Amino acid sequence: MPHTNSDAVTPLRILLADDNPWLRRGVRSVLERAGFLVVGEAADGAQALALAAAYHPDLVLMDLSMPGMDGIKATQALHRQQPQIRVVLWTGRDDIQLSSAIRRSGADAGLSKGVRSGELIATLQAVTSGLLHWQ
To answer: Which residue of 4, 77, 78, 82 is surrounded by the most CB atoms within 10 Å?
Structure first.
């Protein structure tokens, strides 16, 4: 969804971080059809940090489980380096301990990878507009 700056309406800039290239491709397609601008794709947390430093996205959609630096560690590092960037952690797993870890990471929200595309888009829009965040 577009958001406004002082001069014009610009698309929301998103960085995708997931070790599954097929999943990244599918999510990128969904997001671009919804009017988002996908500025980069990372296969692990370290690459996500490097791309975030280079492209300054509005939001990172970060996989919880990636090789090397996982999504929780990457989110914590990202918030130290660029606290203005929103992060939505997502996972294929669902348990109470993960939910607690996602909250402690500093992520703005958490999602299951099983969500429908409309719910994904609505969550990203709500997080970037400040309407959705962990308490």
So the answer is: 78
**Fold held by 2-128:** Rossmann fold (3.40.50)
3-state secondary structure of 124: helix
Q: What is the pTM of this model?
A: 0.87
* Phi, psi for residue 60 in degrees, rounded to 5: -115, 125
> Quick one: 54 exposed, middle or buried, by C-beta within 10 A (0-12, 13-18, 19+)?
exposed
pLDDT in tens, 20-73: 999 999 999 999 999 999 999 999 999 999 999 999 999 999 999 899 999 999
Closest CA relative to residue 124, chosen from 29, 51, 58: 58
List the domain boundaries for the chain. Answer: 2-128
